[in-house]
Amino acid sequence: MASAKNARVLVVDDEADVLFALKMLLKTEVGHVVTEKNPDNLPALLDREKFDVIFLDMNFKSALNTGNEGLFWLRQILQKDKDAKVILITAYGDVELAVRSLKEGAADFIVKPWHNDKLLETLHHNLQARQPKKAGAGNTSTHKNTSTSILGESDAIKEVLYKIDKIAPTEANVLILGENGTGKELVARALHEKSFRATKPFISVDMGALTDSLFESELFGSKRGAFTDAKEDRAGRFEAANGGTLFLDEIGNISPAMQAKLLTVLQNRQVTPLGSNTPVPVDIRLVSATNEPIYELAARNQFRKDLIYRINTVEITLPPLRQREGDIELLARHFAAIYAQKNHKPEPDFAPATLQKLKQHSWPGNVRELQHAVERAIILAEGNVLQPQDFSFSPMEMATAAPATGFAPDKAVPLIEMERETIIRTLEKNKGNISRTAKELGLTRTALYRRLNKHDI
Question: Which UniProt keywords apply (predicted)?
Fold first, then answer.
């Protein structure tokens, strides 16, 4: 299988806007993108060309929007190439149908409107899965093949990788702790891929994005007529993950009411969809993650201690980047190679002063912040040697920066206060304009809204 640079991707959807958006997003990530509006052309297209990943809409022509058209074409594709990596696209969030597609051979599914980062992560994950494994290759602490791999040579990250190898083959529930941007979802995926459930679904849920009103229907499912828009039965994420791994990200943000309902499901290993009285048994391996000080929340009775016992049979704490001695340069060079290729530039070098500047920064946004900083530098740099001035940090990053040495977890509270004050000042400066404020702080609008909610602004 070729690298992402040479990969061939096919997108099949009857919406011209979707085809255009995906082509623009993917063309800098892979070697060649082909779009097709009419699925009837698929057999001839697949006879002529071979694709590494195929994005396939679940609904064509039919006004019923049942997704059966997508399943039909999925079967046709797999008849042509049983190893095809097909990622289904649905606008309806029909998890039950998506699970059926996974059982029939789909590699994954995404829901419209998608998040670009998640879609690209799914793409790279499936490109990596197509790569043949070298004979005798074993697990190493450094993986350099994709931007979504766990990368590092420090003792801190080696300890994490050792724990993954030990824990993954078990059925233990895992709680992943760590600051934002440390790679908690990568660890969750690694646990799944090294487990006996690797051939079953990996379902990820952003708990921080779920309101109390959506919690039950999203996680446990719903029956037709259970609420105004419930026009058909819908499986929840627990059922979607049946036999596989369920990853609950940002679990520390859920309300006491959500905590109680989640605890009941984990104790009984069964879910009851909204509008039903019949429990459905589920078999899942639970992996949870949070950047919140969950034990402090429990001490303040803001998080149930009995729920903590359920979700953390084993615990993995991800080190912040400032504690991963030696990894900053390794990661910076790794991301520089990726973004130079993506932006059609030669792979750059780093001036010694630049490496010193990167090592002295405290990286409050961790690996994600470093990744974005390198991407900005690659785009804006004039020469082929990255200079200190090519790296600038947003007001948010500077405001939340901790000292590069002497870091202690108990110093997190003033940093949070500084973040709140920075957001308020920037909002006032921009007269409440969310878009301008987000841009100045180096955040997306969604990320800014989360922080506004977090700080009760």
Answer: ATP-binding, DNA-binding, Nucleotide-binding, Phosphoprotein, Transcription, Transcription regulation
